[in-house]
């Protein structure tokens, strides 16, 4: 039997496990937004941090939050493609989109938006490489292969698989586990783009 893809495995996780994984992946995308915001002066990185902190609090101690209000604030801080001509805009948009999916999943208690976070994270790495290092490769197949074999792409998949494996071995999501996963993301100190 064929090995299940990472997305199939995420889909099979219990909801709380999916939520922790999605929050972890958002934590790894947030520095991309911070860098974009600092370099362009657009948006308030504290808003994204606040929204993600609210999710961590919900996962750790079931703290209630106004998810719709966070969505509105997030929308106000999402860059518009037409307004910027810098490569860092796309990872910033991806960070906002992933966080929005996470908030939606938490609010609706629905796993599908949480799975989307993993897809967005992988996609943001591929898009960053496509527009950056691999942009000079004209042949579409060669470019796709270069992106797939790039160390950043491999690192993203390895990180997702490692956290997925860790969560698959974990029966219960409790306050300590949430704190541990959050700490792992912060201690890595680099974003999913290696920044």
Automatic annotation (TrEMBL):
The lineage is: Bacteria, Pseudomonadati, Pseudomonadota, Gammaproteobacteria, Alteromonadales
Q: What's the name of the protein?
A: DUF416 domain-containing protein
Pfam families associated with the record: DUF416
Q: Which organism is it from?
A: Aliidiomarina iranensis
Question: What InterPro entries does the annotation carry?
Answer: DUF416 (IPR007338), YP001051499.1-like_dom_sf (IPR023381)
Which top-rank group of organisms is this from?
Bacteria
